[in-house]
Amino acid sequence: MEEKLANINMSIARNAEKHYELYRKMQENIDGCIKCNLCLSVCPVFKATGGSGYAGPRHLSAELLRHLLEFAPLVYDSSYLCTVCRHCEFVCPGNVNTPVAVLFLRRLLDSLKPPYKPAKDVSKGLETLVKLGNPYNTPPELKGEWLEEIDGKEGGKAKVLGWVGCTSSIRLPELAQGFYESMKKILGEDFTVLGSREWCCGKPAFLLGGIEAARILAEESNKRIAETGANIIVTPCPACYSAFKYEQREIYGVNPPSENILHFTEYIHDLMDKGRIYFKENSGNELPRKIIYHDPCELGRGVGIYDEPRDILSAIPGIEVLEFDDVRQDSVCCGGGGGMWGIYPEISMSVARLKVKEALRKGAEAVVSACPACMLNFKYTVLTYDLPVKVLDISQIVAKALSEKK
Ligand code: SF4
Ligand code: SF4
After folding, report:
1. How many domains are contained in the chain?
2. pTM: predicted TM-score of the whole model, two decimal places
3. Which atom of ligand 1 lies nearest, measured to the CA of 62?
4. Residue 139, Ramachandran bin (φ over 0: left; ψ between -120 and 50: alpha; else beta)
């Protein structure tokens, strides 16, 4: 095995120093594996696929290296069969960081462009993403369509910019509208959105291994944000949030125009703490009575935001907040992150289906999250499997519950 690894190292090093560096970083992150299999017990993809074609995180740490040199389809497919949920990282006794290794492997594959392609052509997807500024192959001018239905307005200078994100703008207008209406109720003219001018923050490209694409997208986004003069950026999307807050600067070397970047739940929670917003005593039939909160991986394990959404939901009169069996750090991924939903939607939905069934067993009328990627996956799962539960984002609940006065 060691000799084989040395040969792989040598060969990749011969190709290019950059490739070797990426390979080395990937290897570095999986070196400490003691083959205990704890990661398998929490991996949502392993659970959903039953290990067929993919033996989970340990597969990456122990088996993939052996096949990397020949770039067998196995390597390509396995590298995209990960939602980057970070659950395995939190339980690993060997300090193995599989999701980081996966991201380095994807960067290496993007750079080497091996002949095999996964279910969807990632290289082509990255090209379209850079050209259109969104991962949904949608003409940029349609990105602000969600505003029409609510007579919203895009553009102009304001103190606070609402960064809606591609998924909400294009696939989940109800989320974009809930976010906009909540923020407008609170801030009025001090709030603006870019609408059709909003570009991709670069996160999907980063997750698919396209660092150069991510950098180009981040630069363009930041240029457009700067035009609004906003010094606070609030977003309902945890992926955009961590892109602006951490990855743009630390990984792509791009500086966002403001350092004041907040997730919607942080922003609302802060206003609640300061006594500056109130919720209606009775929202009538507008809201479900029993909801269950799903911790988005990127918001929870990613940046440690667990309490804020729960505090907000619990403060809304008339709503009972239920919990999944595994919550917070132990929360089970919905299956939709890390680029999986775009490449293997059936696997994403089979993971989400298990969570929705648990929600139904507990008597929830709605599954609520604080992430467009989770909402998208849950929404399509419920439609595909005809499951009797609503899927909502926390911003939609806040929009309905906010009161004009105390
Ligand atoms: S939990 Fe860590 S040490 Fe155990 S098998 Fe998985 S990667 Fe290896
Ligand atoms: S990050 Fe999540 S999906 Fe990826 S290997 Fe680890 S547990 Fe599985």
Report:
1. 3
2. 0.93
3. 8
4. beta
SS (H, E, C) 383-406: HHHCCCCEEEEHHHHHHHHEECCC
Flag whether pLDDT at 255 surpasses 70: yes
Structural domain for 6, as ranges: 2-118
Asked whether residue 315 falls in the same domain as residue 262, the answer is no
Q: How far is the CA of 190 from the centre of ligand 2 (A)?
A: 40
CA separation for the pair 167, 348 (Å, rounded):
16
Q: What is the CATH number of the domain that holds 44?
A: 1.10.1060
More confident residue, 40 or 29: 40
Residues 132 and 265 in one domain: yes
Residues 17, 78, single domain; the answer is yes
Shortest-distance Cα residue to atom 7 of ligand 2: 43
Q: Report the pLDDT value the prediction gives residue 11, as an integer from 0 to 100.
A: 47
Tell me if 47 CB under 6 Å of ligand 2: no
Tell me the pLDDT of the chain averaged across its residues: 89
- Closest ligand to C-alpha of residue 51 is 2
105 pLDDT more than 90? no
Q: Is pLDDT of 345 > 90?
A: yes
Residues touching ligand 1 (Cβ under 6 Å) are 33-39, 57-58, 61, 92-94, 96
65 and 162 both lie in a single domain: no
Q: Report whether 201 contacts 233 (CB < 8 A).
A: no
Cβ contacts of residue 342 below 8 Å, gap of 6+?
120, 125, 135, 204
Question: 83 CB less than 6 Å from ligand 2?
Answer: yes
Identify whether residues 114 and 128 lie together within a single domain.
no
